[in-house]
Design a protein that fits this description.
16 strands; alpha+beta; seven-stranded antiparallel β-sheet; binds 4'-deoxy-4'-aminopyridoxal-5'-phosphate; D-amino Acid Aminotransferase, Chain A, domain 1; D-amino Acid Aminotransferase, Chain A, domain 2
Length: about 300
């Protein structure tokens, strides 16, 4: 079958959840006056499904509602209703192994900033295929750089809010790409390690795993929290502590965690080789344990 035909067929099949209805992609349209578009005013989640189950659905829904709360954005749906809507969208698209994007925008407003003049928030759910890092990168590890764009100040736009305004991360990503890397390490205003542009960061020292605490200016990653639990089960010591670039350069191992990337080793930072070169034994173990766990738990797509 010619490739374009497969793509066309797929396009027809894609159903987008928009404010309570499943509509074909071509009809899934929102207003140019939506403040999600005009001001990045809204919140979102990226979620995975594995083997016909949605992974950590409740944790993602909780984070979505917490982000919305921080923005004084009242989601016109209960958490249970939102979880059901995600499952329904996956079922309609047969997204058994995929990536789900859940978006809540402030809604249609005026050209002014005032969010209280916006009509109802818009709820969008897209169940799509997952774009993964190539397998080679899991075997060989990533080379990354620290960049000049500092992570948003918690006192200004708290990075714990997963908002539709991702310019801080995009500016850092541009710097990484310009430096020939796929990811960047972002520092906070004190020069401490915060996180990567779309992933959390961990260092390994002997039997200990260390990651920055949430008050260093990070998104509290759901993968991060799962990995911390799994690592403890593996007998590793896990702590949250301030990390400097020196701590990264001199670590035995470094890895990133995130919904899309899962767990991926970092082998070079700012042209310093990390540890012995390739991803080390702790990282490789956690990549494996996380994959097994993710593929065998979650809310069934019925
Ligand atoms: N930090 C940032 C800035 C992110 O956008 C993400 C999600 N892509 C993460 C960390 C990882 O979070 P999670 O494990 O919940 O996907």
């Amino acid at each position: 079958m010619p490739r374009f035909f497969v793509q066309q067929q797929k396009e027809v099949l894609v159903k987008i959840y928009l404010n309570g209805k499943l509509v074909p992609e071509r009809q899934a349209k929102i207003s140019v006056f939506d403040h999600g578009l005009l001001y990045g005013d809204g919140v979102f989640e990226g979620i995975r499904s594995y083997n016909g189950r949605v992974f950590e659905l409740d944790a993602h829904i909780d984070r979505l509602y917490d982000s919305a709360k921080a923005l004084a954005l009242e989601i016109p749906m209960t958490r249970a209703g939102m979880a059901k809507a995600v499952i329904r969208t996956c079922a309609a698209n047969k997204t058994m192994d995929g990536y789900i994007r859940l978006v809540v925008t402030r809604g249609v407003g005026t050209l002014g900033l005032n969010p209280y003049l916006c009509e109802k928030p818009q709820i969008i759910i897209i169940a799509a295929d997952i774009q993964l890092y190539p397998k080679k990168l899991y075997d060989e590890g990533l080379s990354i750089v620290t960049v000049g764009t500092i992570r948003n100040l918690s006192e200004a736009v708290n990075p714990r809010i997963k908002s539709l305004n991702y310019l801080n991360n995009i500016l850092a990503k541009i710097e990484a790409i310009n430096a020939g890397c796929m990811e960047a390490v972002m520092l906070n205003a004190q020069g401490a390690v915060a996180e990567a542009t779309g992933d959390n960061i961990f260092v390994v020292r002997g039997n200990a795993l260390i990651t920055p605490p949430t008050n260093e200016g990070i998104l509290e990653g759901i993968t991060r929290n799962v990995v911390m639990d799994l690592a403890r089960e593996q007998g590793l010591e896990v702590s949250e502590a301030r990390l400097s670039r020196y701590d990264l350069y001199t670590a035995d191992e470094v890895f990133l965690t995130g919904t899309a990337a899962e767990v991926i080793g970092v082998v070079n930072i700012d042209r310093r080789q990390i540890g012995d070169g390739p991803p080390g034994p702790v990282t490789r173990k956690l990549v494996k344990v996380y994959r097994q766990h993710a593929r065998s738990s979650g809310s069934p797509i019925a």
